[in-house]
């Protein structure tokens, strides 16, 4: 029997598992193949919806699912201590879990995602509001519904982050939300970036600058935060620049899973290196042909986003089928990337506007504008993400 272990059952891991279950259904039925998925919890959250939940364009109920409901029933799913990875031995192909159990695999897919580390910014935890967790989203929704005067600062601490377009997208949607409430004239919006662009894609960056300037949204580049003074409500950069705020919204530092930080398998932030085309784990001269990396867990030169994981899942699933059956051509990942850009909410004064920029390792997005059709298309896109995962599409 060939044993496939998938560590992580959020978007990336669940989609690989379900694609494999479809392609290897006869092998699973005969007992020739086993697919086991491990995760520390059973909550499946559609994080792409979070900004729209903050602004009451979607309900949090749309974003909450159970991983056990989305995984193909032919897949073995372990969660809780039995699914929480605490050790990994690539040479002996052995995984260790929090309950003391071990699992030996023939093939491994690592889809552990990214963790948040707001505690790394001195003083931040004393005034921490974010839309990167569901609890933070619900808290921020309540705060913003009552905010009518002052300065809102969005602090983007450092790269990498999930969906690099989101600092710009959130700022534009915040402007739209405040206009709908007729309080925009009393509120200043400032975006603090650690880099010198709004987005690495030239056309996204160009359009973002135009829209920020049209809407009087201030952006400050190369702002490397050194601390937050919650008592004085000031964000301080490493050069001593001080930015006052009335409400601070933070995009926290992202880190790879602790097990990879502790084991040395990851880079200094805990993200996993690998071949950008084959998606196999590779660190220096160490190459493991049977280990694949996917999604937010990787240190690949590509965005951390569900859309990226979707493209990568196709490549990994097809190549695992070829590995197991010894048939079929090898697929490569070309860096395909989609990053939804929403600029206007559906409000009293507008019908919502959005677009879906696309690029890959060698081709940039062409000039675009956001459209009303794009708004409805992206709402449908978000709402159908669980169905895409469940169907292994």
Total E-strand runs = 24
For CATH, the homologous superfamily of the largest domain is named as: FAD/NAD(P)-binding domain
Form type = globular
Q: Uncertain segments of ≥5 residues (pLDDT<50)?
A: none
Structural class: alpha/beta
End-to-end Cα distance, whole Å, is 26 Å
Count of runs of 4 or more consecutive helical residues? 10
By CATH, the topology of the largest domain is FAD/NAD(P)-binding domain
How much is the radius of gyration in Å? 22 Å
Summarize the structure in words.
With 393 residues, the chain is of the alpha/beta class. It has 2 domains: 2-114 and 256-325, 3-Layer(bba) Sandwich (FAD/NAD(P)-binding domain), CATH 3.50.50; 117-253, FAD/NAD(P)-binding domain. The chain has 10 helices and 24 strands. Strands 5-2-1-9-20-19 form a 6-stranded mixed sheet. Helix 1 (11-23) runs parallel beside helix 9.
